[in-house]
Amino acid sequence: MSTRPRTGVRPPWLAGRIWTYLDHMSVGSLPLVLITLGLTGVAFAREGAVQALRIIGTAEVLGPQFLELAVSELGPIITGLMLTVRVGSGIAAEIGNLTVSHATVAYRVFGGRPLRDLVMPRVWAGAAGCMILVPIGTASFVLSGTAAVWLWFDVPPQEFLFLRGLEPLTVAASVAKSLAFGAAIPFIAARAGLRAKGGSGAVGEAAAVAVVQGTLAVLFIDLLISTAMVAARGMI
After folding, report:
1. Which of 11, 40, 210, 227 is the most core-located residue (most Cβ within 10 A)?
2. Where are the domains of the chain?
3. CA 45 to chain centre
4. Per residue in 47-64, pLDDT tens?
């Protein structure tokens, strides 16, 4: 007769795990997200301003498109890719190490549930962490790009940025992508870790699989949500 507990109540320590993972994913990834999106914002704004000046003679018209691109596309995508590299690979390696050492088998024998105890806390933390990081990273992208245009092309921030032109649908797309990326990345990484087979080399292979599959998932989810956003705009 099995002694595995069959209660549907969430163990109280899971909340603590979620908080620990959230701190690791959000606070731990914050410098990488800020720096990456900040530098990308400078590069995009500068190149866009150069092209705008060459074609129409002014860089001010670039502002609304730059803001929409940051909120709906580049902010969520780059944040998702950074989390895939930093967090996804780490989760896959951590769980992969447990798998190849047969710790997950022992975990099941003593009544543990890997999906509930190892995977889902990371998924919840990933969704919450991405929701925190995407707005911060997007702000870094926008502010650094605005500063670059101001310093290089003498376009004041109040003339470059037009926040009132930001559509609610654009913000909704950013929120949807944040939630989807944040949940998908740790789930894919944990799945790769649980499927690891062999010795220590399997751990590195699981981390590589998590990065590749996580990257493809981010791009595919972005395509789906962006397509839905375009369709919704056509219906409004």
Report:
1. 210
2. 18-235
3. 22
4. 988 888 888 877 777 888
